[in-house]
Amino acid sequence: MSNTALLERPAVRTSAPADAALNSAADLPAARSPRGFALYVGLDEIKAAEAGVSLPLLVDALRRTLAELAPGAETHATVALAPHGSGGRDLDVVRLALQEPGAIARTKAAAEEEQADEDGGVTVDISRKRVLIDGESASFTYKEFELLQYLVLREGRTIERSELVSALWQAQDDETPGERTIDVHVRRLRAKLGRYEDIVRTVRGIGYRFDRHADVVIRYGHGTPSPDRF
């Protein structure tokens, strides 16, 4: 078969104490209580065969282990099928195929990001250290991105030239700019921003500022905890 496969099976997470899930019950509303749990296993048939087992054998072994530990427990096993050539981690494919809410939410967010990349405007992707302008990757140098990022992360605050120099250049750097030389770096940055150059504002006599702008999307990366982490 063409699968990426999973076993949705009761088992104890090894990354936390065995009673961690039970302790989490105290955080649930009074009307709710744990009735079981799911273990997602990201393992395709080829990888299982390389380990000298098969998916049915793994399912059976897990069920027998559970029967010994908790004879009254009921189980249900599901194998998630994926088309040939499906990319990504096996576990992610499995979770999405089984409609795990967290996986669906991340997939939806990724699709929305891709759509946003195709739209107009500027995307400052902090997590990937890149800038997209009207859907195209801009050729920013490392220092140009650091300069823009520094302003973006301090939205609404005017940053003095001296602060930019001390924050972005080390004292031992061969090309540490003076406070006025920073203007040259800002001009180069604005030139690459093209028609969006005004997102970096000049505060006369002081320095520069980034304000909230309708044409700019700031992407910080995905940090939403997985719902299956106790």
Produce the secondary structure layout.
Blueprint: H1 20-23, H2 45-50, H3 55-69, H4 90-97, H5 101-118, E1 122-125, E2 130-133, E3 136-137, H6 142-152, E4 159-160, H7 161-168, H8 182-193, E5 200-203, E6 207-210, E7 216-219
Parallel strand pairs: 1-7
Antiparallel strand pairs: 1-2, 2-3, 4-6, 5-6
Helix pairs in contact: 6-8
What is the average per-residue confidence, as pLDDT, rounded to a whole number? 76
Number of strands: 7
Task: Write the H/E string, N to C.
Answer: HHHHHEEEHEHHEEE
Going by helix content, strand content and strand pairing, the class is alpha+beta
Overall radius of gyration: 26 Å
What would you say this structure looks like, in words?
The protein has 230 residues and is α+β, with helices and mostly antiparallel strands. 36% of the residues lie in helices and 10% in strands. It contains eight helices and seven strands. The chain has a four-stranded mixed sheet, with helices on both faces. A hairpin with a 3-residue loop joins strand 5 and strand 6. Helix 6 packs across helix 8 (182-193). The chain is elongated and about 75 Å long.
